[in-house]
Design a protein that fits this description.
The chain has five helices and five strands. By secondary structure, the chain is of the alpha+beta class. It is globular, with a radius of gyration of 15 Å.
Length: 131
């Protein structure tokens, strides 16, 4: 039976996010950023946020475990918050402590909806370096 998708937001440190991304890479999940890219661009002492939005089951690859596709709000080393996706195992997500109140969760979801995407931000940074 598929576990129900939680309607919550979880806060994680940069270190925790790198661990989650490493786990996603180990399972070859499709939605994840390269760990080296995250190490280079994330603000080291920042808090990042995960918001599960989709149950991901790969019926064409039955050996793959069920995943929760999470929208993520990342704080990068420029101080900006950008939006990306990360596939996470349900059991792994459940182990992240619930630390946010309802108002904070609503605010974070609102910021995710308005945030620049990882791709847009990376393209802008590359263009700025080239000028």
């Amino acid at each position: 039976m598929t576990p129900p998708l939680p309607r919550t937001v979880r806060a994680v440190s940069t270190s925790q996010l790198l661990d989650l991304t490493q786990e996603a890479a180990m399972y070859s999940f499709s939605q994840r950023l390269p760990v080296d890219w995250l190490r280079e661009h994330l603000a080291g002492e920042a808090t990042h946020y995960l918001f599960p939005t989709l149950v991901q089951r790969l019926t064409h690859r039955p050996e793959m475990p069920l995943q929760w596709r999470c929208q993520q709000l990342l704080t990068v080393n420029t101080g900006e918050q950008i939006w990306g996706l990360l596939d996470v195992l349900p059991d792994t997500f459940d182990k992240i402590p619930e630390t946010l109140d309802t108002a904070s969760k609503k605010d974070i979801v609102s910021r995710i909806e308005r945030a620049t995407t990882v791709r847009e931000w990376a393209e802008r940074m590359a263009a700025d370096e080239g000028s």
